[in-house]
Design goal:
Elements: E1 5-11, H1 15-26, E2 30-37, H2 44-57, E3 64-66, E4 88-91, E5 94-97, H3 117-127, E6 132-136, H4 141-149, E7 157-163, H5 178-182, H6 184-191, E8 197-200, H7 202-205, H8 212-220, H9 224-243, H10 255-264, E9 269-279, E10 289-292, E11 306-312, H11 314-325
Parallel strand pairs: 1-2, 1-6, 2-3, 6-7, 7-8, 8-11
Antiparallel strand pairs: 4-5, 9-10, 9-11
The chain binds beta-D-ribofuranose (BDR) and calcium ion.
Length: 327
């Protein structure tokens, strides 16, 4: 058996982040070094506690480093402050949340580590004896701050796998995916840091959306992970239905766990292309994932900087999660 892959998981937990944490802990070939929390789906206090709750439920003592509570720049422009309006609604007095404030798990008995997440990245990566894979499935603030503190840490990053962005898909504005929109400046910094970057955008994750029938398959595994994954799929579909009653697709993409699975086995992705990608930083393009296609601009100055997955294989993804959650 080969060496395990060292992974740092950066999350804004979050329902689909929770599934990514479970997959990382359960994966027999992953050495999960740390979980770093960031504000995103919910404020930092919630995303940190939710990460700790999932780890506790799994009996895992992987350290959690609390990260940034605000985006790099966005928070200083009042009209750009994230809100969570699009992910909750009240129907007949009942609240529906795509990401509840706190996951329905026992409160964590332990706390996060003392070192803030960006300082952890710098400290750990400076000393690392072997390169580490970073799977980032929330806004990219922690990594951007760490790279600003010490860009040399790139040497010890073997790859950054990002759940974020979209070419033909968007979910926060007509042109922007949530993680990138929540901190576009950080995203632009990270995708140009010189590391090997694999982007798992909405174009890929929506191909793998799970239905209530899929949830039942997970539930039948009769393990904690199988049941909790099923509950989260049901919760997300119920919330989507309540928020968009006319939406015909009663399914939900578990975006973040796809990035985690892809970090270990890229064959779960389809149509992966090396592209030049930039992030829109202002006005209508804020948070948009901009792919340069005109050949005359693909010069040395505008080098291709990321591998971008335009599609993915749902059956492979589901089979891998079923394998991990059966353990
Ligand atoms: C991404 O945004 C968040 O709401 C999810 O956790 C996922 O990381 C999908 O756009
Ligand atoms: Ca997330």
């Amino acid at each position: 058996m080969g060496e395990k892959t060292k992974i740092i998981l950066d999350v804004d937990t979050g329902t689909d982040d929770a599934v990514a944490i479970m997959a990382a802990v359960k994966h027999p070939d992953i050495d999960l070094v740390a979980v770093c929390s960031v504000a995103g789906n919910k404020p930092l206090v919630n995303t940190t506690e939710n990460s700790l709750r999932v780890l506790q439920a799994l009996g895992s003592d992987v350290p959690v480093y609390r990260g940034c509570a605000q985006p790099l720049v966005k928070s200083i422009t009042p009209t750009r402050i994230p809100d969570h309006g699009g992910t909750m609604t009240i129907v007949d007095g009942k609240e529906y949340h795509v990401h509840p404030e706190y996951l329905d798990l026992p409160a964590s008995k332990r706390s996060f580590e003392e070192l803030p997440a960006p300082m952890f990245y710098v400290d750990y990566l400076r000393k690392a004896k072997e390169p580490v894979t970073i799977v980032a499935v929330g806004p990219l603030t922690n990594l951007a701050v760490a790279l600003l503190m010490d860009h040399d840490i790139v040497r010890n990053i073997s790859r950054i796998v990002i759940m974020g962005g979209g070419d033909r898909c968007a979910n926060r504005t007509p042109v922007a995916e949530f993680n990138i929109w929540a901190d576009p400046d950080a995203a632009q910094w990270v995708i140009h840091c010189g590391a090997d970057i694999l982007m798992v955008p909405l174009d890929a994750t929506v191909c793998t959306a799970f239905t209530k029938e899929d949830a039942e398959d997970f539930r039948r595994l009769d393990t904690f992970c199988g049941r909790f994954c099923a509950d989260l799929i049901d919760l997300r579909i119920d919330a989507d239905r309540a928020i968009n009653p006319t939406c015909p697709d009663y399914n939900t993409a578990i975006h973040d766990a796809l990035a985690l699975v892809a970090a270990m086995d890229e064959s779960v992705l389809r149509d992966v292309e090396q592209v030049r990608c930039d992030i829109g930083l202002a006005d209508f393009a804020e948070g948009a994932t901009l792919i340069t296609r005109s050949k005359e601009f693909l010069t040395d100055e505008f080098e291709k900087n990321v591998r971008f997955a335009f599609s993915a294989d749902k059956e492979r993804y589901k089979a891998e999660l079923m394998r991990l959650f059966a353990m």
